[in-house]
Amino acid sequence: MKTRKADFAGSWYPATARECERSIRDFLSDGTPALEPGIAGAGGIVPHAGWYFSGKIAANVIAALAAGREITLAAVFGMHLSPTHPSFLMAEGAWETPFGNLEVASDITAELVRGFPFTVETPDRHVQDNTIELSLPFIKYFFPKTRLVAVGVPPSERSLAIGRAVVDLARERGYQTVAIGSTDLTHYGPNYGFSPMGTGTPALDWVTKKHDPAFIEKVLAMDPEGMLDEGLAHYNACCS
User: CA 33 to CA 31: how far, in whole Å?
Assistant: First the structure.
């Protein structure tokens, strides 16, 4: 089985299992998070900046989804794409992580390729993109027996159909599944060409108290169409 090498190990996150585990233990040092009693998490949204910046949030989300369960399929959705981009999928092989490889669930990806137009990647030919890869060590660590479906999806209605298809296919095949969405929120400042409120404390307050919460409200309302509209209109989610 061919393996897609980790492009960001050793830079955006540690390169070895020992270093990754040390980081994860640090991220969870305030106590492993838990969902409400009796609730099993179906999915979560994580950021994808380097682990130094956002690893604590990502680790806590994925640890909460683990909750002592044996997950057999992790579906990860990400990539920095515009509405006009195609969808991307590696249909077979495995993804490398410091904790070991994550095998692609080819029984599901084969059906996705038959049902939707994809740019099909291979372990040797793929777009370097941090959004999916930065979550994979956490997934392998907390779900050691899981297989993987990793999909690059543009912010468009057809991506919602792909997401629903993954869930249906996983249910039909008896997988215990979690879904991970990868997005950062507002990218603010001259480097990103987006600074409508200037700089300094007023700009920071606007981003954290108004601009980001507008997207988060759509998430909490379980409103996928609203998330797409909000992210595209106001640039408060890079991978809505």
Answer: 6
